[in-house]
């Protein structure tokens, strides 16, 4: 009995000591918050929450035996602590416990409170501000009467509109509530996490970007959000940034768009406010806005726009009807992985080796496999890790809930100095870096959704130039000990351009694959001249013209779309040619050269790791898309009357029909109202993927050999990659004239220049494109428009019978000072007609 009594006394004494220690700690934390400028009630709330966090951390660090005998202080324990303890070791994939929501105030009640404050001159903050300052309290307000688990978003918007109409004290109460709200985010241990929904409810305020909120409420909210979310929950598998994104994703497109536009407005105003000497990539307020915008961007990808019923059925069929025994009757690599990103990007299998490969093919696959392993060890691609956690990729989302264009801010694009941002990212200057204000981890390079294609291209340009300079310096350092050159130079003949290029690039792959990322230069046999860019342009033009010839049968040209399509029916082995074309595509990107080939956006989607799907047919094969759409919308009787089977008929290069089964015994299986979704899925997959799989795999390998260490896949969407490869499709000829410079005695007012532009303006579009090719070496418009060409017209002597010539490497037109318009026109057109291999210096 004495032992039991002694034990009880010791336990009571220990409990009393813990309570005293807790009170002292609370007082210390409370006084510290008062010194930080918090009012007493806010300081008290913060101190309680801080004490809870510290108690939880201590309990977690104790041994199991001690934790069992230790009870948390009654003044500190939360009602959710038991829930957390029970679920602490639960697997992440299991659903979180459902905690019932107890509604506090409905939208109508909050609006009535606002009216009461107006009529009876009561405290606005006490009536409408207090419920909004605490995340857990706000999450219990504005609930639907019939379903308390759903937020009354319409009622919430009506409340915010009523506050805006009242103005004055009502608006100040909301602003004050936001200031308090930001202190209380993510400081509870509850697994329910009402803060996520409460944050979204705060941002739904359509007036949050107005001047009164922009002074400090919105900036502080965004700053606290982007600093607190990743830090406070980075080790919690259930409650992390993905939960916040999913909370935003629950909004309808109108509300989500409103928040995006509010943040864009705040970014624009901030760009105009800051001093011109302050870089936008170093401004803490802009950084917090952009990081908040990132959550909304991902939310638009998590839950894309609603689909029509037949589209939803098609997607459902795509996810559930994948059958491993389906065979389309063609040579398909059944071992190619569709789960591993590296297999999708390169077309090689990391685990299996093809014994039928040639020595050259084996070298290429080993090289790619080695580089993939290196990337895996070093952290992989530069994509947003949150995208992987959410399972989203802009490559796969054709139409997000909010259009991609809404996330691009042209004001910030105009203010951004890409070169400085890139240099700061790669080589941070510690002397200029301000530890209190600057964020060394932030760069627009990692937030490409807000950038236009031109700025992304500049990031890619600096990345490629950095690698080329490094390789050049290495060659210079070791040049005395080896024959290593600072450039990738190939020597080809015009008559045998494909074979010469193939042979030399294969030698490069085997000897020094890294040389593919050196600056590319070309020499033609028997021709004098230094390649400053113009010869390379001509090389790409000639080589592509040869590859696209019908004799090779590699491509089919669709006059309706203007695209060259991979030929699904081939009569000869052309894998090497496709490999070469893929390498040319990568080399052109690395050397800022637009190619004379138009490929559908679907091809670029597949290059970025995506897969061709039904919606991609809309632009790749519009006639097929229209027919299949009619089939999906047709009723059962109409489908039966079509007499379709699970087979498809294509034509080879000689016009002969070739039939393929979409599944086993497809020609014997009829399409009906029930299996039409499966038919459309198999048809689309066959046309865009399986029928060209062998050719495209070789093409993709070649592309990846050059771009494997490039940020290409992290920066660009498929349609943007298409633009940087083939150039813009719109020609602003006035821009060409407005940005043109003059030299050698010429000016915009010179008589010969006026004659020249009068002749040019009378040309039709085809003639203007022909002139552009003569002038610059390509008839394509680079990303950023014709102004990016920086063209110049230089006087090349007095009036004479000589033809105009062009330095295509530097986009310079050498024009004699013709005094007669007809003479200038005749000489210019004659020079344009003989531009191939003539006059292009």
From TrEMBL:
Residues at the active site: 809
Keyword Transport found: no
InterPro entries per UniProt: E3A/B/C-like, HECT_dom, Hect_E3_ubiquitin_ligase
Swiss-Prot/TrEMBL catalytic activity: S-ubiquitinyl-[E2 ubiquitin-conjugating enzyme]-L-cysteine + [acceptor protein]-L-lysine = [E2 ubiquitin-conjugating enzyme]-L-cysteine + N(6)-ubiquitinyl-[acceptor protein]-L-lysine
Record bears the keyword Transferase: yes
Molecular function GO labels: ubiquitin protein ligase activity
A Pfam family reported for this protein in Swiss-Prot or TrEMBL: HECT
Skewed-composition ranges (Polar residues): 315-335
Primary enzyme class: transferase
Biased composition (Low complexity): 1-16
Residues covered by region (Disordered): 1-21, 50-97, 315-339
Keywords (A to Z) from UniProt: Transferase, Ubl conjugation pathway
Membrane spanning residue stretches: none
GO biological process, any: protein polyubiquitination
Compositional bias per record (Basic and acidic residues), positions renumbered to this chain: 50-69, 83-97
EC numbers on record: 2.3.2.26
Residues covered by the HECT domain: 512-841
Alphabetized PANTHER family for the sequence: HECT-TYPE E3 UBIQUITIN TRANSFERASE, UBIQUITIN-PROTEIN LIGASE E3C
Protein name per the record: HECT-type E3 ubiquitin transferase
Organism, scientific name: Oikopleura dioica
């Amino acid at each position: 009995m004495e032992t039991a009594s002694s034990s009880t006394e010791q336990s009571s004494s220990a409990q009393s000591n813990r309570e005293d220690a807790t009170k002292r700690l609370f007082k210390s934390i409370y006084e510290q918050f008062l010194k930080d400028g918090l009012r007493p009630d806010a300081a008290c709330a913060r101190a309680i929450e801080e004490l809870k966090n510290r108690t939880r951390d201590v309990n977690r660090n104790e041994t199991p035996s001690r934790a069992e005998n230790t009870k948390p202080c009654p003044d500190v324990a939360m009602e959710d602590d038991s829930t957390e303890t029970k679920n602490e070791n639960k697997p992440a994939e299991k659903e979180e416990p459902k905690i019932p929501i107890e509604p506090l105030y409905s939208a109508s009640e909050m609006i009535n409170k606002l009216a009461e404050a107006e009529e009876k001159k009561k405290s606005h903050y006490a009536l409408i501000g207090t419920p909004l300052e605490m995340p857990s309290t706000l999450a219990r307000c504005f609930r639907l009467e019939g379903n308390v688990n759903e937020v009354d978003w319409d009622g919430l918007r009506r409340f915010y509109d009523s506050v805006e109409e009242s103005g004055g004290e009502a608006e100040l109460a909301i602003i004050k509530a936001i200031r308090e709200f930001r202190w209380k985010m993510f400081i509870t241990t509850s697994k329910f996490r009402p803060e996520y929904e409460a944050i979204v409810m705060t941002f739904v305020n359509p007036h949050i970007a107005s001047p009164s909120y922009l002074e400090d409420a919105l900036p502080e909210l965004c700053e606290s959000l982007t600093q607190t979310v990743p830090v406070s929950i980075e080790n919690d598998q259930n409650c992390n940034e993905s939960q916040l994104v999913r909370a935003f994703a629950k909004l309808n497109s109108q509300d989500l768009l409103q928040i995006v536009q509010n943040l864009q407005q705040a970014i624009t105003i901030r760009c105009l406010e800051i001093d011109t000497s302050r870089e936008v990539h170093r401004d803490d307020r802009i950084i917090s806005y952009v990081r908040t915008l990132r959550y909304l961007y991902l939310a638009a990808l998590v839950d894309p726009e609603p689909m029509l019923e037949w589209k939803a059925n098609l997607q459902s069929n795509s996810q559930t009807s994948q059958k491993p025994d389906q065979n389309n009757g063609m040579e398909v690599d059944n071992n190619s992985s569709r789960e591993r990103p590296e297999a999708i990007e390169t077309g090689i299998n990391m685990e299996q080796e093809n014994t039928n490969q040639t020595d050259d093919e084996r070298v290429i696959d080993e090289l790619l496999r080695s580089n993939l392993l290196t990337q895996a060890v070093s952290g992989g691609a530069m994509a947003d890790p949150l995208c992987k956690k959410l399972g989203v990729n802009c490559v796969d989302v054709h139409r997000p809930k909010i259009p991609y264009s809404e996330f691009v801010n042209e004001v910030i694009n105009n203010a951004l100095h890409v070169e400085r941002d890139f240099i700061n990212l790669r080589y941070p200057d510690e002397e200029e870096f301000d530890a209190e204000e600057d964020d060394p981890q932030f760069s627009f390079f990692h937030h490409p959704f807000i950038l236009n294609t031109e700025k992304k291209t500049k990031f890619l340009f600096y990345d490629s130039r950095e690698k080329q300079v490094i390789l050049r310096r290495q060659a210079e350092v070791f040049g005395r000990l080896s024959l290593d050159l600072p450039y990738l130079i190939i020597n080809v003949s015009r008559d045998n351009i494909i074979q010469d290029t193939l042979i030399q690039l294969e030698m490069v792959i085997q000897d020094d694959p890294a040389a593919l990322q050196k600056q590319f230069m070309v020499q033609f046999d028997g021709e004098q001249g230094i390649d400053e860019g113009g010869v390379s342009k001509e090389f790409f033009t000639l080589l592509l013209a040869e590859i696209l010839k019908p004799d090779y049968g590699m491509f089919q040209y669709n006059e309706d779309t203007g695209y060259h399509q991979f030929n699904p029916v081939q009569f000869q082995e052309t894998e090497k040619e496709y490999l070469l074309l893929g390498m040319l595509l990568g080399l052109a990107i690395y050397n800022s050269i637009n190619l004379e080939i138009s490929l559908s956006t679907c091809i670029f989607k597949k290059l970025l790791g995506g897969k061709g799907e039904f919606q991609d047919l809309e632009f790749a094969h519009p006639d097929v898309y229209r027919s299949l759409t009619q089939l999906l919308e047709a009723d059962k009787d109409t489908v039966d009357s079509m007499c379709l089977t699970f087979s498809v008929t294509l034509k080879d290069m000689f016009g002969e029909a070739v039939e393929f089964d979409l599944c086993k015994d497809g020609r014997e299986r009829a399409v009906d109202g029930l299996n039409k979704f499966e038919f459309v899925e198999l048809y689309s997959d066959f046309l865009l993927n399986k029928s060209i799989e062998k050719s495209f795999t070789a093409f993709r390998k070649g592309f990846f050999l050059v771009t494997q260490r490039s940020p290409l896949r992290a920066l660009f969407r498929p349609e943007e990659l298409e633009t940087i490869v083939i150039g813009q499709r719109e020609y602003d000829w006035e821009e060409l004239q407005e940005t043109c410079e003059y030299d050698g005695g010429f000016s915009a007012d010179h008589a010969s220049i006026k004659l020249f532009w009068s002749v040019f303006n009378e040309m039709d579009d085809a003639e203007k494109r022909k002139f552009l090719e003569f002038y610059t070496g390509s008839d394509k418009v680079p990303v950023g428009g014709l102004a990016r060409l920086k063209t110049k017209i230089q006087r090349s002597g007095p009036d004479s019978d000589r033809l105009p010539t062009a330095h295509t490497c530097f986009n310079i037109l050498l024009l004699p000072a013709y005094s007669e318009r007809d003479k200038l026109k005749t000489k210019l057109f004659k020079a344009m007609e003989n531009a191939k291999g003539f006059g292009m210096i």
